[in-house]
Amino acid sequence: MEADQPSRERIAAAVRQYEVEQFYYDEAALLDAHRYEEWLALFTDDARYFMPIRRTRMQRELDREFTQPGEMAYFDDDKTLLGGRVAKLQTGRSWAEDPPSRTRHLITNVRVLGDDGSELQVESNFHVYRTRLRSEEDSWIGSRRDVLRRVEGSFRIADRKIFIEQTVLLSRNLSNFF
Amino acid sequence: MEADQPSRERIAAAVRQYEVEQFYYDEAALLDAHRYEEWLALFTDDARYFMPIRRTRMQRELDREFTQPGEMAYFDDDKTLLGGRVAKLQTGRSWAEDPPSRTRHLITNVRVLGDDGSELQVESNFHVYRTRLRSEEDSWIGSRRDVLRRVEGSFRIADRKIFIEQTVLLSRNLSNFF
Amino acid sequence: MEADQPSRERIAAAVRQYEVEQFYYDEAALLDAHRYEEWLALFTDDARYFMPIRRTRMQRELDREFTQPGEMAYFDDDKTLLGGRVAKLQTGRSWAEDPPSRTRHLITNVRVLGDDGSELQVESNFHVYRTRLRSEEDSWIGSRRDVLRRVEGSFRIADRKIFIEQTVLLSRNLSNFF
Amino acid sequence: MSVPPIDDLVSLERGEVDRRIYSDPAIFEREMEQIFGRAWLFLCHESQIPAAGDFFAAVMGRDNVLVVRQKDGGVRAMLNTCAHRGNAVCRADEGNAKGFLCTYHGWSYGIDGRLLGVPGHKSFYAGEVDKNRLGLTPVAQLASYKGFVFATHDPKAPPLEEYLGATGRLGLDLIAARGDMVVVPGIQKFVVDCNWKIAVDNLFDWYHPQVSHASAFRSGALGPPPERAGGYDEIDMAGVNMESGAGIDLSVGLISASKFDQVVVIGEYGHGIGGPTVSSSGSIEVDSSWRATAQAREALGPVGVGVAGHPSIFPTTWVTTVPVQLSLRIPRDPTHTEIWWFTFVDRRSPPEVQRFMVTMANRVFGPAGLLEQDDGENWSQATAQSHGIASRRVKHLVNMGVGRGRIVKEHGLARIEGLTSEHGQRWTYHAWAQWMKGTSWDALRAATTPGDLL
Amino acid sequence: MSVPPIDDLVSLERGEVDRRIYSDPAIFEREMEQIFGRAWLFLCHESQIPAAGDFFAAVMGRDNVLVVRQKDGGVRAMLNTCAHRGNAVCRADEGNAKGFLCTYHGWSYGIDGRLLGVPGHKSFYAGEVDKNRLGLTPVAQLASYKGFVFATHDPKAPPLEEYLGATGRLGLDLIAARGDMVVVPGIQKFVVDCNWKIAVDNLFDWYHPQVSHASAFRSGALGPPPERAGGYDEIDMAGVNMESGAGIDLSVGLISASKFDQVVVIGEYGHGIGGPTVSSSGSIEVDSSWRATAQAREALGPVGVGVAGHPSIFPTTWVTTVPVQLSLRIPRDPTHTEIWWFTFVDRRSPPEVQRFMVTMANRVFGPAGLLEQDDGENWSQATAQSHGIASRRVKHLVNMGVGRGRIVKEHGLARIEGLTSEHGQRWTYHAWAQWMKGTSWDALRAATTPGDLL
Amino acid sequence: MSVPPIDDLVSLERGEVDRRIYSDPAIFEREMEQIFGRAWLFLCHESQIPAAGDFFAAVMGRDNVLVVRQKDGGVRAMLNTCAHRGNAVCRADEGNAKGFLCTYHGWSYGIDGRLLGVPGHKSFYAGEVDKNRLGLTPVAQLASYKGFVFATHDPKAPPLEEYLGATGRLGLDLIAARGDMVVVPGIQKFVVDCNWKIAVDNLFDWYHPQVSHASAFRSGALGPPPERAGGYDEIDMAGVNMESGAGIDLSVGLISASKFDQVVVIGEYGHGIGGPTVSSSGSIEVDSSWRATAQAREALGPVGVGVAGHPSIFPTTWVTTVPVQLSLRIPRDPTHTEIWWFTFVDRRSPPEVQRFMVTMANRVFGPAGLLEQDDGENWSQATAQSHGIASRRVKHLVNMGVGRGRIVKEHGLARIEGLTSEHGQRWTYHAWAQWMKGTSWDALRAATTPGDLL
Ligand code: FES
Ligand code: FES
Ligand code: FES
Ligand SMILES: [Fe+3]
Ligand SMILES: [Fe+3]
Ligand SMILES: [Fe+3]
To answer: What is the pTM of this model?
Structure first.
């Protein structure tokens, strides 16, 4: 990176980074505020939401660390199912979320890995912290690989893959979103 | 967000974001270095510093989750009291902070929600990690809503509201700042 | 920070910040993907990699909190030794890392403290999360002070000092990088 | 801490359980010895380890066990601990190995557990290491029933088939008889902060879904309510209101709103099956045609073929037929339990059917499952309320239908017909108490042989 | 683990306590039975739950209790555990409810705890659920003294007023008599890694503020030092130096530097009050005019009206009159204690006065309180040093003024006049030992009735 | 929980240890009393606290101890707990102090532990505090051997030199005799989730490096393999394969590939030394010239001068001569152990040599050490496999060379010559069992006096 005046390209890249990060921060704010329907609207109709199962493997076999689509997973949703989850939270009978969990999504290390003008490949890291009731605590840490589609001057999530670090999940459920 | 060259407005927004984030990172560095007087100087004279008490409530009553100014709180300070806290830390008799706590403020998800030219509404998430003595650990996670005022080409904190996720604080005290 | 149009200098600073952050995020991604040789290539040949020992001290003696080069440390490596560590991980006999640890480097609070055109002084905070086997967890939190050298339109790490918050390390080893 | 008299802890007659069994550390230690140290425990399914050297890391109580496919096609299981100084010889969850190396001093074992290599055997040990004696310790007994691999630490335990008895075998047949069943890659694993028995107690709890899972049913995410065969009959919900004062409207389909015929099968050693009958459960199973096959009718028998409920193999194995899954509740400590989910498909069924089965499994159970995500908090809170000096004096009730369960014995099975009940839970706790007494296998069998009434 | 002979643990004569009581798990279990299973414990103040259905989640030992305002204006408290399988029926800290629904199987309770709804009562239970017997378990006894709600698990416990006695009642009157007192929204809750008795021991510790809180006093953040009535007398600090070698200059006002008249009141069952007198404490109380009212003088009596110290209601309730707060120390385990703060204002006082009281409370106590933020580490370290085999042999001393406390009995109160002392702590530990013996209430009362000397 | 009969836990004859000793809480409590409550334990080196008021915070079992340099040049150690209510009087790891102030009530102590100041001694205590009796509790005995400071809680323990005996003294002399040895600033501290004995067991384990540390040796990061004196002889690795099926090629130098002469020295109370001889270990030590000095030859004696292995001072002190370091294994609980590393240089050696010694220490041991980073997981897993009901029945083996160790007694040392063995570990466990019996010091000494064979 040169010390002198940045080129138009570098400025454009920096601005795009800013806009992608803001998109993620806004998304996180919607989740932490339990504004699930607005969150759902950030996904394209053809979106996939996938969190594979991770397994402790020897180095030799690390290529088989994660399960693949079609195998078992923690989340393997299309938008309809994602909508079902949101609907569930709004039935007034979603007991495990009433009182609601208190979550905080800390989003870091956002990287735009590709951009063909219409779609971006973006990776980010997360620390999702949850407390419930008097003093229950969960921390889920991992990374996401998204496809962001440019739609009406903003972004939509066309694909999200969530890679969590734990193999045995150290929490009682996954009643929140990532 | 268009893929082509960013407009002046978008560039200005990205630069403002950069400057706000740097302000927060510099602030965090002052706290983690125990440079409390310089930190105090970042607040306007009319600043409020407020951390309400949070209560586990049913979804129906979530509007009453946090206490309001005038009710009980963990912090409800004006600058004078904040200054008193700093003075306390510098009496050489603030035993709970000697040996000093080791803190690390991880600031993420900075969002400028409003800007009228003179004041900005800014939200951010934090993970404040503390270790003390041989192996005590605390992690406080939550969000802040600030009013930043433009003063002499930089910012001053005119108002800070700290929303912590825990209802029962899992730490022995709050002898540090957020 | 003025509300009106940002000057060339401020734009340049924002772009530099973006490029430094991207460098760190890319570095973190290499580590979390176990791509150690590529990571090693990010260091200059004259690089030092140093993690001092931290001690709980009274406020009066805080200047002696960290050990100095020449004293004992957790890491005090030149590039050759760093290369040795990478080589060790690739012998296929590095048992404590096979199955490999799952790490996630959350990098925050990046601050460029100096830039003489050829070298930058940069500070950053980190939360390195590690899980191993079925349900082991480690979290290392602290800060780094780097010297980044401009090389062929990118950066190289010419010096890294890692300041970890814990005095008694609450983990079984430090078989990963920071 | 000592264990209270066992007979004070469970009353079969009143259907009452003492809550101390959910948090007392001394009782937990006794469970590790008397139950997890003796019972046949499910390890994995043979389809998970098809090739020689394929292994799966299983848990028996607090023992870590490696299940390994052998060169001769057989399966062996051994403690994952080195004969030298106890280090684990394998630290992966699953994979394929040509052998196991202890990374401490290099003792090296075959996939059969035999000690093959000892560094410096000649030079340091003067060749005196008894390699035949010092392999990886095999489990006391291992057996496979139609691909389901079980093991026990007790050499005196009866053979697996006898241990399972007609009830346990039927439980497994309800999976096996569907076709050429294989486990889908990916075992879900998570930890719930509850006592393991609270989670087991839930196995054939057909009383809770209507309420616990009301949000899932209403969300529509499980698809349209299943059609039901025969007349439809609302559950009486008089006086049942939410904390807001409003009632819970359950009228969104079968499980969530109606009562229907159920059958509970109970067996020796504490096994059981509980839930709807095929005829009453209508289209819950989506497609029951597999039951009509000769293979199925023969394997399940006249009673079994009509069973659509949840089999439980004592102590911690749960079978569900919709979706086709097997779940383990693995005790970690008195108040933490690991839940594992194994999912099955019929290798011979069309790809889209297999995909459908996987999709259904993904959305129903597991930590993010639309149903199961609401279970944990109930179990956790039930466990939490067993600590208080006053709260633990309140009995844990499993008395629904107590003394009204007439036991019919036919085709080697003991069954009770009726509506939703707690017969199954009661039977499980009764068996638990007998196990905890540490009596002989014969005495245990006798004490857990169904009578005429429950 | 067994409990050592109780009389070896506390010596009233020498003012010495065995440190094992701060970390021994067996002693903690005994405390849960003998103290928290029998004593009247503070739950909340009636002003927190003004309207029918208002509830507050309280803790009694390890039992979770719901305190609920009834339709008839009364207050009830019941165990927060379902009569069916023990799930909590309410998981919020506070709020308003029309009833309580157990989210496991839907058993539904009224705000009075009565079991109202049982899904399938007719169809599944054949209407045999004894709804009258199976409500939420009420506490054994509940009573309210001037708005302060207490409960006990022991049906044989004496009535609250008798339990409190003159001393305990005075402690509460020191709040109640100020006017129409209500709790300000927001109960501060935090966890200190100390044994609960170390925190209780601190209740009427007027020896520590001068040093523990030196930084707060010097910071000026508590405002100018209070004026004091009468002559001013420095504490002798000969030889007291900081680790830097410098002395601690305490000359910044009343509490931090001077000795003054104090009075300690002790009562049956272990209650006590300790601290300055109104006359000696000068303007600490800011405004003592309320004491002059007829209401106050009548309620407090000739002795009480002059008391400005800290009342303690055995075992874990602390009252402070400046600011007007009530604090609980809730044991979580031997080395962790939850601290709760309730803050009171006089509803009839002007808004600015109420605001002032709230502001003062916010800055003085609680985890971020200028005073309290320095307490936790002392308590935590004192607890930590009770583990070591040699350290735990060192006695915990509460012998200041031992044997010099002449007890004056007037107006139903037993008091000791003098300067700062550890009479109050000594009395508390003495009572603790009597409680731990598990004797009858009469014997307990007799053993905790003040004599002539302390 | 009670402790099993000690003699069932360790078999010296068979070299077998019962794994319960690695996780049983009752055994751990007994260890705190019988071993850590009685043995001489290493606190620090005098060079760490050169000036008056210099202090170092050490740990003895679960007791926190302050080691302080006195004005008269002497060293004292006292429990870090206030005589009043037990608060720690110093919370730093190290530093310099003019005295110690308890921050709770201000009791103030000299660096000698004497109670100097008591706030309000006259006014509140009527001058009755017995300052001479109420200082910081000194350790029962403290002594320094050539700068190595040890202490014991047992007043009846034999003097340090006698406790160390020839074996223990030799262990320390192997550092002291190198020159004017000082500790380099920076004590590495970290926690391994293993039982402390598993870590101690590893002290003189010369059987594991070749395999455990194969990656470090192959990485080249430790520099070229040391040259060796005399003939080179590969270890036989027949049948030793990695889990991939490939063998472990060890041919990268001395420790990692060859067998060589070793000598094991064993002594009273359980001390021992094990590892290569100077002649066999070739250039491992880099520079052995120091051994040729008169000082060294006199201090080490004819046997000691040839010892290049690892001394162990019972129970938890490990000395390594390459690099020159001393390590402690501090038990936290049955399954967690704190590891501390002290590093030494000869103050008289040239700066570049001192730098080299520090560099070597930094890269070899400690949590990031190229060798040690691979140790923890083996210890952790060995501990983890001691919980299971079946796994804990498998013996922990330390039988290499059992019954073949002919003990030669010369120059006051008992030694066994041969190749790599487990004599040292066996001796340690044997001594552990004798300590745990709680017999008299004479009986203990007798029971841990080497015989003719091991
Ligand atoms: S522990 Fe396995 S080889 Fe030594
Ligand atoms: S546990 Fe409450 S209804 Fe079953
Ligand atoms: S505890 Fe140390 S002075 Fe009171
Ligand atoms: Fe369920
Ligand atoms: Fe205080
Ligand atoms: Fe090693």
So the answer is: 0.97
